[in-house]
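Format is sequence with structure; example below:
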Amino acid sequence: MRALLIGRFQPLHLGHMEIIRRAVEEYELIIGIGSAQKSHTLENPFTAGERYEMIRGALREEGIDAIIIPIPDVDYNSVWASHVISLCPHFDIVLSNNPLTIELFSPLREVRRTEMFSREEYSGRKIRERMIKGEEWRHLVPDYVAKYIDEIKGVERLRYLAKNDE
C-alpha cells in the first residue's frame, strides 16, 4: 500500500523524520514537497530543489527509500486534492494532521492522522526563528540537513529576509 505525506519541510526536522520512519514501516511512501513554487520568504525560505536535497540526503543517511515529488500550490482549494493526485504516482492513503488537507482529501482517499512528535520543539517556524536570532537549531534537524543549510548559507538567507521584512 502506498501513502502520501505532504509538508513544506522548511526545513525538514526531526519531527518529520519520526513520522517518515514510522510511515515507511507500514507503507511505500511518497513525500510531497508542498508550496514547491515558493522560496526566499520568511515562511518559505528554501526552494523546492533545496528541500528535495535536504529530504533525499537525510533519507539516504538512514537507508530510507521514498518517492519525492514537488507539489506547487493552486489557488483553489476545491481542486487542490485533484491537482496533487495528478502530480503523484498512485497512492491509497494520505497521512496528515492538517485540517484542510484532511477535509479536501477525505472524499477522494483514505486519510490517516499522523502522530505529532514534540510539536512545540519540532516546528519549522520555531527552527527558522532560532536561525534568525542566532540560537542553537542544529539539534532539531537531521545532521545532513544542518550541513546542507550551512552549505547553501540558509541562515544568512533567513537573516537577510528578516532584516528586509521589517
